[in-house]
Amino acid sequence: MLRRSLPEAGSFFRRLLGRGSLEGGPAAGATAPFRHFVEQLVGGAAPISRAPSTLASASAERGTGGSDQASLTVHFLRHSCGLEDADAAKAAERLHLRSTKNARAVLALLRDTLGMPPASVARLVAAYPAVLSSLTLGAKLDFYLRELGLSPAELRRFLLASPNRFLTAGLDTRLRPNLSLLRNLLGTEENVLAAVKQSMELIYDNLEIVLLPKLQVLRDHGVTEEILVKLVTTHPKALVHRSTRFDEGLAAMKDLGVSPDSGIFPYTFGVFAKMYQSKWDRRMQNYFSLGWTEEQVRRAFVRHPYCMTVSEDKVKKCMQFVAEKLGWNPDYLASCPTILSFSHEKRVLPRYRVLDILVSRGVIKNGIRMSHLTMSEKKFKEKYVDGYHEDIPQVLEAYGARTVA
């Protein structure tokens, strides 16, 4: 009835919404429900243009609501953050942008201040979309870079590893108090930075709860302040990580005969306490399968705790090589287990080739010894490569062109 009695209504409403208007643009204030009402009112008229690009621009500047807000969020995630369609849709379920102003400022900080490449930005936003809503990102980046002393590359790695903890830790309620505590405990900025690089929990967690009580227990067991500093700077996860076997570690050190005031304590305790029991058992069984006794494994661990961090395959490869080429047995390796941590391709094999040539030429009289493999790179090169390459040029090829000065 209204359509027949007011034929000019369709033209009027179209001009109101933007079609055929004298200015050629849509009415910015028209809402989706109002558009739907007008479409039903004017009936058979052609669909009303929504001019999406203009609407999106206006929405980004003044904020949106409902489905327009969701569309803005997805559009921004795809085109400004580089997310794939599926990732953008998933991230939009946890993020609702009313405006892109702050989100664009966040992207500028990530790209310009941190030097984060586009792929990493997309990865971060997909994992933690709330980063785009952060109002404190700039201040926190300044804290980590200037006050703590991390490099942009280090900070990128930590942010990607744990964006939630990075963004939710309070600057004045957690980050700065922890930094002050660590400075008092560790004495130097170098020690603080070394410790934090090993475990960001030292910055994120409540240290008065997770760290200080354990340090007091260690003091009560006779651990000196010097050893405590070394433990915190080299193996802080043994103290603050949720999987730490702190109590078991103290008992194990006593069983192994490791004195709490000895220089090896922070390393033996640190390696043991932060390793899951299942992994420890698997490493022990690997040594047993290669002919080691429990006493030999314990002796090796006390001398070189990192022998328990070497993968099973690497230990097998090393044992097979030294047994076949050098005739060394587990008891000999247990007395000097550092060789287990060396790179086979970059250290053990090149040195063996050089030494084998020198043994065959009679230069080395008593065969290859452990000291040949454990001496410093500089000393080995000067003594066995530079010292003989003129008379025995084969040592250069055996050691590799990379070692030639």
TrEMBL record:
**One of the Pfam families matching this protein, by short name:** mTERF
Record key words, sorted:
Transcription, Transcription regulation, Transcription termination, Transit peptide
Q: Name one GO cellular component term.
A: chloroplast
InterPro entries linked: MTERF, MTERF_sf
Q: What's the domain of life for this entry?
A: Eukaryota
Q: Which GO terms describe its molecular function?
A: nucleic acid binding
Task: Report the record's Gene Ontology biological process terms.
Answer: chloroplast organization; DNA-templated transcription termination
Q: Could you tell me which PANTHER family the record lists for this protein?
A: CGI-12 PROTEIN-RELATED, OS07G0423000 PROTEIN
* Family of the protein in this entry: Belongs to the mTERF family.
Q: This chain belongs to which protein, by name?
A: Uncharacterized protein
Native species of this protein?
Sorghum bicolor
